Structure formats: C-alpha cells, structure tokens
Predict the 3D structure of the following.
Amino acid sequence: EFDSCEACELLSAVRDDLEAADISLRVVAIGDGAAGTRFAAANGLPDGVLRMDPEASLHRELDLHRGPDWSWPEFVSDDALRFVLSTLPGGAPADAARLR
C-alpha cells in the first residue's frame, strides 16, 4: 500500500504535465467507496481519478498483487484489527465479513 501511496503522490505532482500531454489519469484501487475517498484525499488525487474495485477483480485478471495478504491470529480482537487497519490510507473494510 505504501508503494501505491508514493506512486499516487508522484502522479498527482505531474498532473498538469499529464493534462498538457492529453493523458487522463486513472487509478484503480481495491476497496469500497469510503476507503477510496480517504485514500484519494491522503494522496492528493483529484475527484474522478480513483476507480474502486471492491473484489480486486482487475488485479486478479492481470495477476497483480491484491493487497497485503496479512493473516492475524484469532486472539487479536476484531476491534484491535479495525484500529490497526484504520491507520492505513484505505482504512478498515466496512463489511465485517471482509475484515479477516
């Protein structure tokens, strides 16, 4: 995720150059709309640039990395896990079934 943040910051910084070259910036991210809003705001992406893919279907079809693939021990409570994930730009998933 941190590589994604850095890439988006760099792309945002050259947005004027991209527009001058008639290149439309589009970023596809995994997650829901709320996570996308936080991610875009944290990384300087203008409105309309970010496209959300809640199921990571594009990443799967292109055989790309689909997230950190972390596993958490069962003794870590869902509340603790939500807290940790909330510190990341994408935040914790709204759907409890997608938390673990």
Summary: Helices lie at 2-13, 15-20, 33-43, 57-61, 78-86. The first helix runs from residue 2 to 13. Strands lie at 27-30, 50-53. The chain has five helices and two strands.
